[in-house]
Amino acid sequence: MVVTNQLRNQHLLWRAGFGPKAEQVQFLASISQKELFSKLVKSSDKRPESIQVAKNSFDGIMKGFADAGKIQSLTQEQKQQMRKQSREELKNLNGRWMEEMVNAEDQLREKMSLFWHGHFASRNLNVFFQQQLLDIVRQNALGDFRTLLREVSKSAAMLAFLNNQQNRKQHPNENFAREVMELFTMGRGNYTENDIKEAARAFTGWGFDGGGQFVFRQQWHDDGQKTVLGKRGNFDGDDVLEILLDNKKTAQFITRKIYRFFVNDVPDEAVVNSLAEQFYKSGYDISRLMETIYSSDWFYDPKNIGNRIKSPVELLVGIRRMLPMAFNNPDVQLLFQRVLGQILFYPPNVAGWPGGKAWIDSSTLMFRLRVPQLLVGTDEVNINPKTDDDQQMGMGDMESPSKVKSRNAAAYKKLMDKFAGATVEWDVYLQNFTSTEKTKMIETLSQTLLQRQGLNKNLLLKYADISGRDNLVKSVTIELMSTPEYQLC
Amino acid sequence: MLIKRKQFLQLGSLATATMMVPKFLKAFEQRPANLVPPGNKVVVVIQLSGGNDGLNTVIPIRDDIYYRERPRLGIAKDKAVLLNDEVGLNPSLIAFKDFYNDGSLGILNNVGYPNPDRSHFRSMDIWQSASSSSDYVNTGWIGRYLDAQCSGCDKPTQALEVDDVLSLALKGEKSKGLAFRDPKRLYGTSQEKYFKEISAAHQPEEETVDYLYKTMAETISSADYIFTQSKMHPSSASYPATQLGQSLKTVASLIFSDINTSVYYLSLGSFDTHVNQQPQQERLFKELNDAMKAFVQDLKDNGRFNDTLVFTFSEFGRRVSQNASGGTDHGTANNMFLVSGGLKQKGLINPLPDLGDLSEGDLKYKIDFKSVYATILNRWLNANDQLVLGRQYDQLTFV
User: Fold this and answer.
1) Any idea what DSSP says for residue B314?
2) Does the residue B308 lie in any domain?
3) Domain that holds residue A468
4) Which residues in chain A touch residue B198, judged by CB atoms under 8 angstroms apart?
5) Could you point out which of A427, B132, B230, B259 has its C-alpha 20 to 30 Å from the C-alpha of A453?
6) At which of A246, A262, A288 does a domain end?
7) Dihedral-angle region of residue B229 (phi above 0 means left; psi in -120 to 50 means alpha; beta otherwise)
8) Does residue A49 lie in a domain region?
9) Do the chains contact at B202 and A370, CB–CB below 8 Å?
């Protein structure tokens, strides 16, 4: 692999963000990594604007039930109606966040937020709670892990998902304490079952009200003496979080996970240890950790370039950044997320998405290879993603195309038109190549779009549309995006 | 148009290379030891997605508690498909009575697991990964079966799912099953000339990109293999025009061929009947019933019924009491149907649920589902169940 300056810049953009956007292409050969990174940092300096989608009427319904008890008195139909509306809003939240990832300048922050979104994974049909949790994550993504951990742990979404509302003095529920230790901080093997039991007692009383605000219910709190990880005191939830952060295992666990997500699935133990030490000593300063990673020589080592499988969201956002497009129906993004196995706000479980090779099987790979053609309309979506009853509860909102087709050809056509892809706005992208020699076009496009150069260029030429410069660029671009290499960054 | 569709999507000729090879050469051309010739056992898993209500599936017609807890939803004795004077089936499951009568239906009751989870995704993951309820496992039991069977095999088609998206159940550590809706469409998609050519042109270079190309090559070659096999001795029987009906027809055609598949995975749903349960469940069971009726007859007519075991499962059952919306809410243990000409135990294999001994309104499980898997892996598929499931589970004796 020849590691050019351009390759290094693209590497930085794909890992620290969601890949280069069309407007950046012409600068990528010349700018230095230092300067590029500096721009990235600057763009992520400000606190982001919160993403809010919950309609007012919905807010009203939620706030009207200020007391969680009232929610029980709704009929099944009313509950289903509320859930249906919540699902619609979650779709909107999903779409809005996708837009941020595609368009926002603060790429560093959004990519980091995606990581935390998978780390602090929660499923909650209440869009209000999810919206809140997303905001906590985005505001604190590049701050300090202590604050992030504390705010996430006190969020309604997490307290609900991990059943802490049911965690009371007389009837402890250990789920929250367990996942905080196992998945959010130290990782398995660094605590005992007793630590969990005791920590669960400390978290009793942590809850939220109907408006999604944190509430400490003294009457449910067990304020007795507890022993957690060798320390003794009448700890409350905040104390336990401090104990967990105090333990270096937390720094190691988080750092290792960050390394595996941003650098290489196979960790370099020496590097990870060194980063973890620094992370711990800095008081869990996330920004500093990421800066160290992105400024290190080993980050640009060939063994760390072009070997990471993009997650479904990264794949879609990356394509959209390079090829700005308008969707005939933005729901098509949801369909793609579902088929490829990653729907924002619907992690498979609290452990998040496993990532890496887990993204790939025959179906997902073949679908990924077809995504560019599906988007530009040279191929048909004819796929039935699995239903998710935690979302749909028996009311399939995405009916199988083959079922529809067997019933009614007109309805089938209507359904297909619904998913008839997108309209790409080619101009910005094409401008990058107006002065590229035609004979060098395939090579240039390949160097721009791919982080690995193993493809046979003659094949690319064979299938290209050579009836003019623009068509050449367009056709080769789609070909390149339809390869296994394009799945990697 | 960006790329001429005709150019990009040129399908290979339907007369594939495999079919051109003379028969005697085919014999030389790998005949892997793990091929499934007639006489070898096949499993067909039908997942009832959404948490099927077991009590309205296998109905305890003599149990007063059942009718007391379900004044509206309970199925009356004269509506049920009576198997004997103790138990009836859901009104839609007429063909299952025939299976019962000729000894090819087994019913396992109260199948579940300790510390049951009532989230669809979580409980389904538990069933598919065969994990305990406190562990998160990223592989499925059939995937791990593939890992154990399939070291070095070039056609990883031993487990197939008839669906567009692959379930966790078929994802192993190293091997993954293949999911497709229809052999012809899979073939069409994977045989796009562009994809075939870049696949053939790839030179090994690095582990991750090679993994992608390996998956691609396997998909292309498996798609060809599956399509060819599906045309070798296709089923000529008439199946219902429903999704399950057509999927089972595909499965039948593959069973009758030389394909090395030993596990087929399908799903039907959604059974998540919180509201207005009765028509939804009956409609879905009609689809199941009619498809199974055709499938079983087809297998019998082709002498493969004794070698094929079909079983149904759901990620949980539902609560004993009906709710206020004509439905039921998430519960715990549930029943499983076993259909095969090769059953050693038939009918009700274990007792019906004891509705007087509930756990906060829910059924208590009596059989751990992992025992059912262990039995099938060991006794039907001749596999190492301990290796696949991670530990030993009690064997049952229904096969």
Assistant:
1) E
2) yes
3) 433-487
4) 455-456, 459, 483-484
5) A427
6) A246
7) alpha
8) no
9) no
